[in-house]
Amino acid sequence: MKTISNVKSFDGQQIQASHASKSCACEMTFSIFLPPQSDSSPQPVLYWLSGLTCTDQNFVTKAGAQQFASRYGIAVVCPDTSPRGDGVADDSGGAYDLGLGAGFYVNATQAPWAEHYQMYDYITQELPALVAAEFPVDAERTAISGHSMGGHGALTIALKNPGRFRSASAFSPIVAPTQVPWGHKAFSAYFGDDTSLWAAHDAVELIQSGGSKLPILIDQGEADNFLAEQLKTELMVNAVEQAKADVQIRMQPGYDHSYFFIASFIESHMEFHAQHLKS
Q1: Which of 148, 167, 169, 212 is catalytic?
Q2: What are phi and psi of 119, to 5 degrees?
Q3: Residues 90-97: contacts with CB within 8 Å, 24+ apart?
Q4: Which of 152, 202, 224, 273 does the annotation list as catalytic?
Q5: What's the rounded Cα separation, in Å, for the pair 214 and 77?
Q6: 196 is a catalytic site residue
Q7: Could you tell me if residue 232 is left (phi over 0), alpha (psi between -120 and 50 degrees) or otherwise beta?
Q8: Can you give the CATH number for the domain in which 146 is found?
Q9: Is 148 marked active-site?
Q10: Cα gap 98→89, rounded to integer Å
């Protein structure tokens, strides 16, 4: 692991680092905030998964989460959203919703994506092992959150790994990628025509098939221009009601899809996770 930068923020450390990833077969970059409490003992950790076009830095620089992570004593890990570098496949037309910056947190099975796009393994196995080995975190107390594509990743990863996380949350998540254009495009490329693999990475499908005892918080802006076509939050509302899952969905009037929305409600998400991360 190589440290790229380390700056003080709210008495903690905001670190960016890189390492050679076996899962993704390339150099991967991630960021981690260590609260001041980490100086004396390992602290619980929140994984944040960002959305389309983002890197590990968007949440770090725009969400304003460090002050609350410092207050509650939570380390925050922000991975990149896809593999990158020479030889890593990208959309031939340079589209923003496939390839670089659009890994969808799945393990691709189709060429040319399968060689590097193993983001599910990276997020669930490789990165947590590295973080636990290199930083003072309590790996037994873990939560996960994300935005848009990252909200999809946070929800599906949490639902597919029962007992792994104490809590999960999401802003503007793609709750049903099997039913929206973003998901159809990405899953067709990464998985091909095997729709059974699609359903295994769809939060609505996972809620409907098995329910969930995991506490989940979802915030969705009512003025989000992607809501009707790409996000379809009403599908999650219906699934939660039918499964009687422990999911709180808050529709926020006037808010859009941007980091202004995330910054407006990140304090309540950090407080939500802090309640469940207490030892």
Answers
A1: 148
A2: -70, -30
A3: 96/52, 96/53, 97/52, 97/182, 97/185, 97/186
A4: 224
A5: 20
A6: no
A7: left
A8: 3.40.50.1820
A9: yes
A10: 10
Rounded to the nearest integer, the mean pLDDT of the chain is 97
Strand order in the sheet with 137-147: 2-9, 12-21, 26-34, 75-79, 43-49, 137-147, 167-171, 216-221, 247-252
Per residue in 226-270, pLDDT (tens digit) is 999 999 999 999 999 999 999 999 999 999 999 999 999 999 999
What is the number of structural domains in the chain?
Answer: 1
Which candidate in 147, 257, 269, 273 is catalytic? 257
| 201 noted as active-site residue | no
Distance CA 159, CA 144 (A): 11
Cβ of 27: how many Cβ atoms within 10 Å?
16
Q: What is the DSSP string of 163-198?
A: TT-SEEEEES----GGGSHHHHHHHHHHHTT-HHHH
Residue 86 token pair: 């020479």
Q: How confident is the model at residue 211 (pLDDT cuts 50, 70, 90)?
A: low
The residue among 194 and 48 whose pLDDT is bigger is: 48
Report CA-CA distances (Å) from 185 to 147, 190, 203.
19, 9, 17
Domain carrying residue 46: 2-277
